[in-house]
């Protein structure tokens, strides 16, 4: 078992590539450093995606998220970088990353970044009684 952070995002084949379905992963312990002060920033990340041919492997995702612990990054930059890396690794039909940063100086920051594959259209929502 690895005990060190890693930027490697392992994937595995989507077990149901002919179906649109959503994977939601909540990551409540994300940390990085404020690029101005060097103090830690804490966030909860919510990853939601509709896979195409590849899914992200959870242990690899955990080690990837851990790799940001000692890096300085603005909230907007780190959210978009993580989304970009995940899209590059999995090539999903759709992916959304929501980063809810804890209060710092009386301010909360939430950054939402999305990717949509060219030509992909989501199915209409089903409203159940």
Write up what this structure looks like:
The chain is of the alpha+beta class and 129 residues long. The chain has helices at residues 58-66, 75-90, and strands spanning 11-13, 23-33, 40-50, 54-56, 94-104, 107-116. The strands form 2 sheets. It has a 4-stranded antiparallel sheet with strand order 2-3-5-6, covered by helices on one side. The chain is globular, with a radius of gyration of 16 Å. It starts with 10 loop residues before the first strand and ends in a 13-residue tail after the last strand. The mean pLDDT is 95.
Short key terms for the protein model shown above:
129 residues; alpha+beta; 19% helix; 38% strand; four-stranded antiparallel beta sheet; two-stranded antiparallel sheet
Helix/strand layout:
Blueprint: E1 11-13, E2 23-33, E3 40-50, E4 54-56, H1 58-66, H2 75-90, E5 94-104, E6 107-116
Antiparallel strand pairs: 1-4, 2-3, 3-5, 5-6
């Amino acid at each position: 078992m690895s005990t060190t952070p890693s930027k490697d995002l392992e994937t595995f084949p989507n077990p149901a590539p002919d179906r649109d379905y959503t994977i939601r992963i909540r990551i409540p312990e994300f940390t990085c450093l404020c690029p101005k002060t060097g103090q830690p920033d804490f966030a909860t990340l919510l990853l939601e995606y509709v896979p195409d041919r590849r899914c992200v492997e959870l242990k690899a995702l955990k080690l990837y998220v851990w790799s940001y612990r000692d890096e300085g990054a603005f909230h907007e930059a780190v959210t978009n970088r993580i989304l970009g890396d995940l899209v590059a690794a999995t090539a999903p039909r759709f992916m959304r990353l929501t980063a809810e940063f804890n209060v710092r100086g009386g301010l909360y920051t939430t950054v939402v970044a999305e990717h949509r594959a060219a030509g992909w259209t989501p199915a209409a929502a089903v409203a159940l009684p």
